[in-house]
Amino acid sequence: MPNTTDVRIDPVTNTLIREGVESVINPFDAYAIEEAVRLKERLGGKVTVLTMGPPQAETALKEALSLGCDEAVLLSDRKFAGSDTWATSYTLAAAIRKLGGFDAILCGKQASDGDTAQVGPGISTHLDIPQVTYVKKIAEISAAGALVERMTEEGYDSVETPLPCLFTVVKEINTPRLPSLKGLMKAKSAKITRWTADDLGAEPEALGLDGSPTRVINIFTPEPRKGGELLKGATADVAGELVELLKDIVM
Amino acid sequence: MDYLLTEQQTMIRDLAKKIADEKIKPVAAHYDETEEFAWPIMKILADSDLFGIYIPEQFGGLGGGVMDMCLVTEELSRACAGIALGYAGTGLGAFPILLYGSDDQKKKFLPDIARGRRLAAFCITEAGAGSDAGSIKTTARKEGDRYLLNGTKQWITNAGEAEVYTVIALTDKTRGARGASAFIVEKGAGGMDFGKKEKKLGIRASATREVIFTDCEVPAANLISKEGMGFIIAMKTLDSARPGVGAQAVGIAQGALDHAVEYARTRVQFDQPISNFQGIQHLLADMGTQVEAARALVYATARMIDSGAKSVAKESAMSKLFASDVAMKVAVDVVQIFGGYGYMRDYPVEKYLRDAKITQIYEGTNQIQRNIIAANMIKEALKR
Q1: Which of A22, A245, B148, B322 registers the highest number of CB atoms within 10 A of its CB?
Q2: Pairwise CB contact (< 8 Å): B48 & A180
Q3: Phi and psi of B11, rounded to 5°?
Q4: Domain B121-230 architecture
Q5: Options 3.40.50.2000, 1.20.140.10, 3.30.530.20, 1.10.3720.10; which CATH number does B231-383 get?
Q6: B53: chain A residues, CB-CB within 8 Å
Q7: C-alpha angle B251/B253/B257, rounded to 5°?
Q8: What is the CATH number of the domain that holds A190?
Q9: pLDDT of residue A5
Q10: How many whole angstroms separate alpha carbon B208 and alpha carbon B156?
Q11: What is the pLDDT of residues A69-80, one digit of tens each?
Q12: B13, closest residue in chain A (CA to CA)
């Protein structure tokens, strides 16, 4: 995703201008990468990191490789431009199908630019596999399935799921490591696989702005809420006044 | 200033900087206060491969040199010179093996040091042998296929925490310094004990203890080079390691100076930031210039050592002398810029002052460095 300290919006399409903006790993995805690498270190296997974005997203993928991912794939094509969460998850799911077999897909709970938290669940829907969102711990995982803790406002749910499954993770799940020098050197010389719309064999009308059923009409900062009305006086009077005020409001 | 680092060196410096900023800075005050050894940070440094940068690739390292080690030491010292010493002290302990160890010794000890699985320590100083390192009393007596070490080493950095110790001891008391030899002693060797942890003015996150040998058994295979080489090994080790102290001093000075610039820009007195006042500006300018000059001398010396130069004693002494004097002066002036806030322990700069002082003392006091520099200058003049 673009470094959000430096975001500009295209005045015509109301989408993010990605050109010339540095690409960084979405902070929430860093936890997904760490968890995937930890699973690999514990159980073996291979971690492939996948993103859709402009060519400069390669920097973020290389960072992921330096953190222990084995392979990286960048989906980059002008035809993907303007994708909403539906088209994005459709495109990513198509690429995952093309990659072949997988046991688990890990995503950050949301991107810190759009904050929708829809792409992860969208991918699982397109692939028709189960999903568990807001995972804060993968307690058990094997070929038979996984037992995970799903964070809620009050505590957590224990969820059992078969594999393959898609998990979106929260920052409570781990502390991401820093890259190692050997990892950085490996990443520097690593080749990133780059796929276009043609490589995916995807329906052209399902991609990019055309494939996006939602449109951003306007982006604005909401007006700050005005202070409420303060009622003063004896308790009985104030209570009466309040009832009168509330009477006309349908709640 | 651009020092034309290689791509790999830039990567090393940036990673060390990231660790210093993200992992060390937030805990520096804690370890300074508690005097605990920062094992969690050592683990991070180990996982990042930084312990191996100056160790050859065939022994599990990344094949760099003193320059690479200086870059890391400087960056870590910007955040905490005490924590940085766990790293740099390991380099000092590893140098005798790197410079004079046999292939078997290198194979046995360097890979674990390169991975940060074992820290190292260098043991020469004794209660009666500081600047006069030739007057050490610790002995090593050969008995069959082992040596028995007896004596007490004092103020040993990383003692108790490290697992590999390179120790200078006399194999022939009658020959003085020429009768000294160097040994590798592993923690846990029978007859090896540690004294109490010393309480210090600065670098309080660094562990400093006595290492006590009482008929301590060391396999004969752990003798580095041959008997009688101990003093030469020690001097060459210190020649290679002194730019590391210089780098630590540059890091301390830079860390303190960064605080001073930030403070001067934001501290308002007489209705304006104090950075508007020429008195402050000139202090900053002098400090910035001195730090850059110290860094240039340290890097130049480190590169000279890495190029394989035969004699580096003079330059190595100069880099340590100049950088440590700069660190002390800068730390004093930074505290001055902070005024009362600089004197308070709730603010970060008094620590730099406490940490800076040791760089003028250890690995040869600055008076001894001047002796080395002058002696080499006179020797060079005689040769002409």
Answers
A1: B322
A2: yes
A3: -60, -45
A4: Beta Barrel (2.40)
A5: 1.20.140.10
A6: 181
A7: 115
A8: 3.40.50.620
A9: 64
A10: 5
A11: 999 999 999 999
A12: A181
Neighbouring residues of B230: CB distance < 8 A, sequence distance ≥ 6: B168, B169, B170, B171, B180, B181, B182
Tell me what pLDDT residue A245 has: 85
In chain B, where does the domain assigned CATH 1.10.540.10 lie?
Answer: 7-119
Residue B261 contacts A where some CB pair is shorter than 8 Å: no
Backbone angles phi, psi at B278, to 5 degrees: -60, -30
Q: Do A184 and B15 touch (CB under 8 A)?
A: yes
Q: Virtual CA dihedral for B114, B48, B93, B313, nearest 10 degrees?
A: 100
Can B363 be counted among the known catalytic residues? yes
Nearest to A180 among B7, B22, B47 (CB): B47
Domains held by chain A: number? 1
Per-residue pLDDT at A22 exceeds 80: no
Could you tell me the two tokens for B110?
């360097």
Indicate where chain B has its CATH 2.40.110.10 domain(s): 121-230
Residue contact A178–B8, C-beta within 8 A: no
Contact residues for B274 (Cβ-Cβ < 8 A; gap 6+): B264, B267, B268, B280, B337
What the block records as the tokens of A206 is: 């399902």
Tens-digit pLDDT profile for residues B280-298 = 999 999 999 999 999 999 9
Structure token pair of residue B282: 């000139």
